[in-house]
Design a protein that fits this description.
Blueprint: H1 3-11, H2 14-21, E1 37-41, E2 44-47, E3 54-56, H3 59-62, H4 71-81, H5 93-106, E4 112-118, H6 120-135, E5 139-143, H7 152-155, E6 176-179, H8 190-203, E7 206-211, H9 227-237, E8 241-245, E9 270-273, E10 284-290, H10 312-328, H11 334-344, H12 346-349, E11 354-360, E12 363-368, H13 378-390, E13 393-394, E14 397-398, E15 404-407, H14 415-436
Parallel strand pairs: 3-13, 5-6, 5-7, 7-8, 8-9
Antiparallel strand pairs: 1-2, 2-3, 4-10, 9-10, 11-12, 12-15, 14-15
Helix pairs in contact: 4-10, 5-10, 11-14, 13-14
Bound molecules: pyridoxal-5'-phosphate.
Pyridoxal-5'-phosphate (PLP) binds near residues 61, 119, 124 and 212.
């Protein structure tokens, strides 16, 4: 970067442009410095006017899971952008191949159909509509601490603490119920949760249940071992549709293509993917649903179709990316890499300010707490994040108490980079200790 960039900056006052024209709610309030990215490669980001790059442990909220500008994906994107094989509502080769691939990833016994859209929230809305259409029922059940996006329908199933529902102007959570999520870090038992769900199903016309197999925005909160399997069985017994939202933790992040398969769930009704399935270059999302669920969907189509839902660019990259992942067995290496990184990060847990270092694959997180009260502290978390930024490490706060920090490395992270992540976080922690002592 360096001097050229500084020259450019001095010609245009971007900070003023930001103050005058950028929407304030489109900017994180976590960072106390105005930074403008100008280049990104792998896990490194260069900001305007700064010589040294920053280590990016957020990766656009897991949407560039292979790192920024991963060369094989850049090559795929360049090739795909030069050809157009998707003309509005005709099916392209890439689209059909990708549909078959995703369908067979969910099940080789049952038939699944795939519907694509733009972004995770759209997939969640589509899936909820599919539950309602296919059952003729209205209510949805979701879980405390869950996040599924910010469209009107998606927000209806999000924990109130994770989305500002007053911004919608009208109540968004009509026809939804929330129940406690039995996690490895709370004392909610699987039977208590399932009993609550059973009662809701008995008393109301429940169409579906939506669950993240590991809560992502909640701060990588893991389910108790038998929970997902028992939930799936309960849904089957009661003819309630189960949506498994793998948008954040699926597609390799937690060490496998799908997380639910690691927890023993077989042939779920609906599975959702998005984020990095097109390498982060186009926000493709996929609703992979038992084909019978589409039986009642009116063929008029427009209730589901959107202008870009079959983007030639997005689906072309996604289809070629699946082939790359298969060829290079990229996800197979994630569990070992994750274990190595988690072990190296053990020093974090020794700090009195840190609790619950946890991880599965390369989905790693820890919480920041007050060392005396042991309670979550969003204030200390903000300080931690700003000390990380001084160390040129980008992190962000999540979780219902805004005190969880997630470590989201690239899925193709090297052993050297694992060492760098751990060294840098050690420096961040020391800076933080020096600041708060
Ligand atoms: C589990 C989950 N579902 C849905 C979404 C919504 O995706 P998008 O932000 O692309 O609308 C997110 C976003 O973080 C998510 O983590």
């Amino acid at each position: 970067m360096g001097s050229n960039n500084k020259k450019y900056s001095s010609e245009i006052d971007y900070a003023s442009l930001r103050d005058m024209y950028a929407c304030p709610c489109d900017e994180s309030k976590m960072y106390d410095k105005f930074l403008m990215p100008v280049k990104a490669k792998g896990m490194w980001v260069w900001f305007d006017g700064e010589e040294e790059p920053y280590l990016d442990l957020v990766l656009n909220y897991s949407s560039v899971n292979f790192g920024h500008c991963y060369p094989p994906i850049v090559e795929i994107a360049k090739k795909v952008v030069e050809r157009v094989d998707q003309i509005h509502s005709f099916h392209s080769k890439d689209k059909l191949e990708l549909s078959e691939y995703l369908s067979k990833k969910v099940s080789t016994e049952k038939n699944y159909k795939v519907y694509f859209n733009i972004g995770g929230s759209a997939a969640v809305s589509d899936a909820i509509r599919l539950c309602r259409y296919s059952t003729g029922k209205r209510y949805m059940i979701s879980f405390d601490g869950s996040f599924h996006g910010v469209s009107h329908t998606a927000a209806s199933v999000v924990d109130d603490r994770l989305v500002a529902k007053e911004q919608f102007g009208i109540p968004v959570s009509e026809y939804t119920f929330s129940v406690p999520f039995p996690s490895t870090t709370n004392d909610v038992s699987v039977s208590y949760c399932l009993e609550k769900i059973k009662k809701l199903i008995e008393k109301n016309d429940v169409a579906g249940i939506i669950v993240e197999p590991i809560q992502g925005a909640g701060g990588f909160i893991f389910p108790k071992d038998s929970f997902l399997e028992e939930l799936s069985e309960l849904c089957k017994r009661n003819e309630v549709k189960l949506i498994i939202d793998e948008i954040q933790v699926g597609f390799g992040r937690a060490g496998d293509f799908f997380v639910y398969q690691q927890y023993g769930v077989i042939n779920p009704d609906i599975v959702l993917l998005s984020k990095s399935i097109a390498g982060g270059y186009f926000p493709v999302s996929a609703v992979i649903a038992r084909s019978t669920l589409f039986d009642n969907v009116p063929l008029r189509g427009t209730a589901f179709q959107t202008t870009f839902n079959n983007s030639s660019f997005g689906l072309g990259i996604a289809n070629q990316l699946m082939k790359l992942i298969e060829r290079e067995n990229i996800f197979d290496k994630v569990p070992e890499k994750g274990d190595t990184l988690l072990k190296k990060l053990n020093f974090l847990d020794k700090s009195p300010y840190v609790a619950d270092l946890r991880g599965m694959g390369l989905a790693i997180a820890f919480d920041i707490i007050d060392p005396v009260s042991k309670m979550p502290s969003d204030k200390l978390t903000k300080i931690f994040i700003s000390q990380c930024l001084k160390e040129h490490v980008i992190t962000y706060a999540c979780g219902v108490n805004f005190n969880s920090i997630k470590i989201i490395p690239s899925l193709v992270v090297t052993n050297e980079e694992i060492d760098i992540i751990s060294e840098k976080l050690d420096n961040c922690l020391q800076r933080f200790h020096n600041h708060v002592k």
